[in-house]
Amino acid sequence: MSTFAETKTPPSSSKKKSKSKRNELSTRKKESNKYLAPFQSSDPNIKLTATTALRSSVSGKIGAQNDAIILQVIQSGVVPYMISYLSNDNAMELQLEAAWVIANLSSNNNSDATNILIKAGVVSPLIKLLSSTRYSTTTTNEELIGQVIWALANIAGDSSASRDIVLRANVILPLRRQMQSTENISLLRRGTWLLDNLTRAEPRTLLTELNIREPILTTLTLLISNKDEEILKNVCLTIGYLALGVNENITDVIDSGIVMHLIPLLKHPNIDIQKPAARALGNVVTGNSTDTQICINCGALPCLKQLLSSSSDQLLKDACWAISNIAAGTIKQIEAVVNSDVIPTIIKMALTSNYNIAKECAWILSNVTCGSTQQIQYLIECECSAGSCILAMCNLLFIQNDCVSVVLDGLLRILQHSDVPRKVGLHLVTSRKQIVQDIKNVNGLKKIKKLIKQKDVDISTKAKHIVDTYFTDVIDACTAKSP
Description:
By secondary structure, the protein is mainly alpha-helical. The protein has 31 helices and 4 strands. It has a two-stranded antiparallel ribbon with strand order 1-2.
């Protein structure tokens, strides 16, 4: 019995532990009540002072430290007070500080924190402030609206789910109204950033479902002539997102008339504007031939040609991608590409640039081979200082290349073209023998034969068809010469 008694936990120890927990919870509750007391005060000055101090405590910090502080503040129970202050139309300074606090709290990188804000009901009063007609163009009012827009942009940028909540709260029309009635650059920057975040994430079906693509494009059309570079960048990004998806989305962009203002931005001196402008145009010219022709008519090709001298690999890739989409159009559109005199540069880039750029060049060359007899002949005869079109295409015939199939298609069309008789003087001649020899001279035949063993059935079949149809005589001749 004595042994059992010695090992038994003393009852007093358990009681002390339980009492310690109760004391800790009591202390936390007292601290929480003390923290929230100023926000519960009936004195508006005390509320304002506490809210201003809170705003300062969550401003100016970055990284994990900031996220931890923000989450702690959100979990403190202070958010409902900030939301109530947003609705206090008789205390604009308090509204401003509360909106500023919400904007800072929503700037975190923790989706849990953003979800707490959303569940607390922060979106609705923010939209109400944005919609209010009493906030005109005075400095204080615009500062308040700027904080509201900043908060909504942070929330919308957190996830597609958060974005959809903001969209369903009918943010677009009041946002458009505010942006149309101001020349405040800071507010317009934040407004275009909000539009960027509202259109960035997939899926974008809600934009069509809520019928808000047109008002967004109307707003962007008003702002695309602005001189501010941050505004222009956000506008170009948003146009690019709106042009993604089905052809109807692209037609919406075309019908808005914004493309005629977008294309000149390809010549903007700031590369950070050229990049999203080129990407947006590239998305637009993936559409139908009518929409693509409008882009050509607006001067797309000369602007894209100018980008081919850029030092930015990303910009070169996007410019080539846009040109390849144009070259994938009608005979008339292929002719526009040929007449723009980009082909010699494209051949050189295919031979000298890194793979990501060369791949886009291969698409351009292959798409041009879908053109007329004259266009294909031009391509065959076109050379640059680095070599010919056939050399450029054959250089890309390596197994790891994900555009091999496209290159094989292009080479096959060139070979098929070489069988078509052309009038030279008084005679009809074909260029088959010359093209076959040109491909062989640049080791193209060896590469094509290797591709016959490729596991990819599509590539293997195309390679075998080219060899069997056009190179049997060459192979037989080589075999005959063997000792």
